[in-house]
Design goal:
By secondary structure, the protein is mainly α. The chain has one domain: Orthogonal Bundle (Helix Hairpins). Helices cover 95% and strands 0% of the residues. The model has no long low-confidence stretch (mean pLDDT 74). Keywords: Coiled coil.
């Protein structure tokens, strides 16, 4: 073959090769540009991924912090609840103590009323006993006056008896003396005893007079003995009555003293019960004030807990909602990739 034929056959091959080179270059350039674009995209994606990881870490930190805050808030809430329960139990204890104090106050009031009634009854009894004592003292004085009168009468009777006995003795002695004088006069005169009428008369009259006088004396002695016996009986009776009255008077005085002592004791007990009632009333007022203060504190704590709980409901805040929504979007994007 000639040279021209060879050139004609080589030229199309070179052209094809050049075209292929150019297309390859173009492809390489386009691939390089695409590679640059992919690298840029990859860098931007890496940057966005880093940003997303940082935001996710921040969101996780915030979530952990929120969980910690929620735990703290739960602990505070539990502490507040325990405090409320403790304050409620204390309030119940105070209420029970107040009821006990009220029951004690009622009991002391009842005892005070009973002691006052008993004191009034004892005063009435004391007044009645005083009246009885006055009556008995009057009767005792009257009996003493009667006894003194009877004693004076007895003395008068004894004096009269002694005077009567003395007069009887004097009469007997006078009669005997007269008889002796008459007999002596008759004997001196020398009158015969058989003819002397006076002597006979004296002999007849003297025994009769002596018998009469003896009878009268015996009757008087019997009457005197009867009077003495009656006087002794009356004096013994009146002495016995006076002793009984004196014993009754002593008993009444003792009972009066006992009643006075009881009245003093009851008055002292009444004063003590009044002082105890005053003390219990003061304690009750103090307990009422303490219970009111506890209730006010409990109501204030409950209001403060409600306000703090409303304030601490951070999941209702807009910032918390935004953070949660962003974290959810980031998680969705990461999961898609």
């Amino acid at each position: 073959m000639s040279c021209s034929d060879k050139k004609t056959t080589v030229d199309p091959l070179l052209k094809d090769l050049d075209e292929k080179k150019e297309s390859f270059r173009r492809n390489v350039v386009s691939l390089a540009s695409e590679l640059k674009q992919v690298r840029g995209r990859l860098v931007s994606q890496e940057q966005s991924f880093l940003k997303e990881t940082q935001t996710r870490k921040e969101a996780e930190k915030r979530a952990k912090n929120m969980e910690m805050e929620m735990c703290k808030l739960n602990k505070r809430l539990e502490e507040r609840n325990s405090q409320l329960h403790a304050s409620a139990s204390d309030a119940e204890k105070f209420i029970k103590d107040l009821e006990e104090f009220r029951s004690q106050l009622d009991a002391t009031n009842q005892t005070a009323e009973a002691s006052a009634d008993s004191a009034e009854s004892t005063k009435i009894q004391c007044s009645v006993l005083k009246q009885q004592l006055d009556d008995k003292t009057r009767s005792l004085r009257e009996h003493e006056h009667r006894v003194t009168q009877l004693g004076h009468q007895l003395d008068d009777l004894q004096r009269g008896l002694s005077l009567r006995e003395c007069s009887e003795k004097q009469l007997r002695e006078e009669l005997r003396r007269i008889e002796r004088e008459v007999t002596e006069a008759i004997t001196k005169a020398g009158i015969d005893s058989n003819d002397c009428v006076l002597k006979k008369f004296l002999e007849d009259v003297s025994p009769v007079n002596f018998e009469r006088m003896n009878r009268l004396v015996e009757v008087n002695d019997v009457e005197v003995k009867k009077l003495k016996d009656e006087i002794r009986l009356m004096s013994g009776h009146w002495k016995h009555q006076t002793k009984e009255l004196e014993s009754q008077l002593e008993k009444q005085r003792r009972t009066d003293q006992d009643l006075k002592k009881k009245i003093l004791k009851l008055e002292f007990c009444l004063q003590e019960t009044r002082s105890q009632t005053r003390k219990l009333q003061r304690k009750e007022e103090r307990r009422d004030m303490e219970i009111k203060e506890i209730r006010d504190l409990m109501s204030g704590k409950q209001q403060g807990d409600e306000e703090s709980w409303e304030k601490q409901k951070f999941w209702d805040n807009s910032g918390f909602k935004i953070v949660v929504s962003m974290s959810m979007l980031m998680l969705v994007v990461v999961s898609k990739r």
